[in-house]
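Support request, please re-run this one:
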Amino acid sequence: MSHPIDAHIGQRIRQRRWIAKLSQMAVAERLGITFQQLQKYEVGANRVSASRLWEIAQVLEVPVAYFFEGIGAPAGDAPADPVVIDRDSAEMLRAFCALPEAQRAPLLALTRTLGTAQA
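Re-run finished. Output below.
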């Protein structure tokens, strides 16, 4: 069984890879590892060393701290549950980030309105 923080980091690697529209094979090739090894990182089956995490951050163009966002538990407390983003959510995020800034605010307002109307 994987440690919750290893699983969280793996999920963040997968999410960022989806957002960047990169396949496991493409990321693995850039890292000089097999795609199976990347799969093991993404599911938390294998721990990611500090040096490898730095390399992954470089390939995915994020700071290393990105992988720890959302944990936020004080020392001694259990880590927070990882936030899971499915492919549809990742695609929406990609599309939203591609919009000009002037279009983002109205779209966000519309989404919030639709979300509260469903509740």
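The radius of gyration is 16 Å. The CA atoms of residues 19 and 93 lie 7 Å apart.
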